[in-house]
Each structure stands twice: as C-alpha cells, then as structure tokens.
Amino acid sequence: MKYKSLYLTVALLCCVVLAGCEQPVKTTDVFGPYYMTTLKLSTSSDVVNALTAREGELVSQSGSVVASYGTAERGTELWFNMAAFDEDSLAAVRKYAMIVDESTSLYIMSPKRSLRLDAQAVVPASLSDEPYESEGARRIAILKMLRRAFNDDMGQVSYDSANLRSAALSAMNALNMVVQTLEASPALGAQLERLEGMSFDSMNMGPGRVRMVLQNDIATVKIKAGAAAEGFENQPDVRNM
C-alpha cells in the first residue's frame, strides 16, 4: 500500500511537471526552409511562396528581404527564417535561420537555454580578393561582413513585430560575442574551419561554438550556444556543413 502511494505521488508529480512545460519546437521544422533555399539559384518568389505557406507563422517582407517567424505559446521559444535577394537577378544571396529557447523554468525536466543560428552568404569579390595577413584574418573579415549584412537585412523587416525584434536581438548578441572574441584574440580565427569550431562565451546562453566553411564565394556559418552547443563536433548538421 505504501509503494502504491509512492508510485501515485511520482506519477502525479510527473504530470504536473509536464503540464508546466511546453513541448519543444522540432528543429527540423524550423530549419526546413533554410535548407530548401539555394543561394544564387532560389528566386524571391520561390522563397516567399515557401515561407508564406508555413502554418502558424507570420511573414514580414520588404523589397529585397523576406522573413517568417513564430513563437511558442508562452514565448519561451522564438524562431525565424530570413532570406535576402539580389535586386537585379532576384536570386537569394543570403539566408538565415535561428531558434532560441530562453526557458527559465525551475522544473528539473525543463530544457536548458539554447540557441542555434545558421547563416550563409555570397561573399563579394571585393572582400574575398583583398590581401590578408592570414586565412584567419580573412575569415574574421567575412564574419564581420555577415554581421553587418544581418543587421541591415533584419532592419528591413523587424519593424512590425516585437517577437521578430527579440529574436533578432538574440542573434545579434551571438554574432557580437563571436566577433568580440576574435577581435580580442585574432589567432583564434584559424579555429573557425575546424570541425569542433571556435569556442566563445554567450552572455545569456552560456558556452558556445561557431564554425565557418568557405566554398568558392559562399560562406556558411553555424553558431550554437547553451544546450545546443553540447557535443558540437558530433552533431550531424555541423559535420555536414
């Protein structure tokens, strides 16, 4: 009888904990449009049609940028997909996707805070052809370019949504911490291409990792912090960059 009471208590406690926690958004759902967009090939109409078809998300659009975004019921998770297009060819030249979980629940079973930001951009020839002291210096310059581009792109679409502005702030904080880490120790730029990436400290999320892969004129960047950064080099999406 005593054991039966104990089992009942544990079961009730689990129900309370689970009821107080949100079901996490599936990462594959968030990053689907990002992987479906191919820089220099996907057109603005392709991307706009894909993003506007996503159920439960809002869309903001300017002349050259489109973003879809959503939030969990209690606002603990925010995510977005965004793409920027060449004004002449209308082909995608930059794309971004992010999910951030800022849960602060005290429940033991609740997930840790986490952030994942993926970005890819066509690198202008004027930047890639410039002489640099080292390959690490080149990568730092490209990351700074990407940060400026993200800030400019997001500035075109975030004006009509507090949720999108909040998500953008989280992304910019992560980009700023990566750049500040590299500015303090430029030699770390050589670590960006490694599978394990470069480590940095995120202000709100905890330890993070960033990796950059350059292929011809396209730079691919992946940033993870908090729980998302655990086992970074073993994660399939990191290994397959």
Structure commentary:
This protein is of the alpha+beta class. It contains seven helices and eight strands; from the N terminus they run H-H-H-E-E-E-E-E-H-H-H-E-E-E-H. Strands 1-2-3-4-5-8-7-6 form an eight-stranded antiparallel β-sheet, with helices on both faces. A hairpin with a 5-residue loop joins strand 2 (65-71) and strand 3 (77-85). The chain is globular and about 45 Å long. The termini are far apart.
Structural key phrases:
241 residues; alpha+beta; 7 helices
In short:
The protein is an alpha+beta fold and 241 residues long.
> Segments where pLDDT lies below 50 for 5+ residues?
1-24, 105-110
Mean pLDDT: 86
State the major sheet: 8 strands, antiparallel
* Number of extended strands: 8
Please give the structural blueprint.
Layout: H1 2-19, H2 27-36, H3 44-52, E1 58-61, E2 65-71, E3 77-85, E4 92-101, E5 114-122, H4 125-128, H5 135-157, H6 162-184, E6 198-202, E7 206-215, E8 218-226, H7 236-239
Antiparallel strand pairs: 1-2, 2-3, 3-4, 4-5, 5-8, 6-7, 7-8
Helix pairs in contact: 5-6
